[in-house]
Amino acid sequence: MLKRKTVNSIFILGLIVLVGLSFFLSFPWYIFLLVGFIWFLLTLFGSFFVRWNYHLVSLHSNKSTTKNEVAITFDDGPNSQYTPMALELLKKYDARATFFCIGKHIEKHPELFKQIIREGHTVGNHTFSHDNTFGFYGTSKVAHELSKSIDLVEKLVGLKMRLYRPAFGVTNPSIAEAVNKLGLISIGWNVRSLDTTPRNEKMVLKRITTRTNRGDIILLHDTSAKSIAVLERLLLFLKEKNLKSVTVDQLLELKAYV
Description:
Blueprint: H1 4-22, H2 30-48, E1 58-59, E2 69-75, H3 83-92, E3 97-101, H4 103-108, H5 110-118, E4 122-125, H6 139-157, E5 163-164, H7 173-181, E6 185-187, E7 191-192, H8 201-209, E8 217-221, H9 225-240, E9 244-245, H10 248-252
Parallel strand pairs: 1-6, 2-3, 2-8, 2-9, 3-4, 5-6, 7-8
């Protein structure tokens, strides 16, 4: 996978070579512009495609597992309307999941958050505010956002979260530095449902079921009726395929809390 430092080193070296050669050969000016544009595109796509591990290494699956397990993960909750529905379905099918919660939603629904943990699911950090401009925050502001959620959860249930799900799937040098400083583990996915897009229930379910295999991490959201409908059909599919949904820390064999 592409790494930011590697790409930057290659492009800096390339520019040095081009500048050196320009003393002996004639290059059109737009060659330098083209090199800069390619670097910009790689950095931009690396920021938005979490699976590239461009700025920050995230864990996306466990393909080495010998167990028939997958991990269903939910982002953006807890939601007072839909999270209880998700919990009811998970209980019905004896499944476990991981909820990457937004701090301000935990603050608003503390008892629902406690219920998630009480029923055997794992919780992780999805920032405190999930602000639309989160990708433009500096390192200290990112760290403050993450720490605020960590402190809130520790005060509420006595657990210090280690798992972080990048907001909007966006990473950059500031986010990477803050995550590393706080000693967090970034969790990505390799099966993205796209349940927050205009795709209908059937399309979302097909997208998941045609991609899901042992060791995969599935991304859903506990924020809509469509996602809940998809969840029930997904749990039936997993049962038919003899795949069990476990928490992401169990799938990846790591500790979710300090």
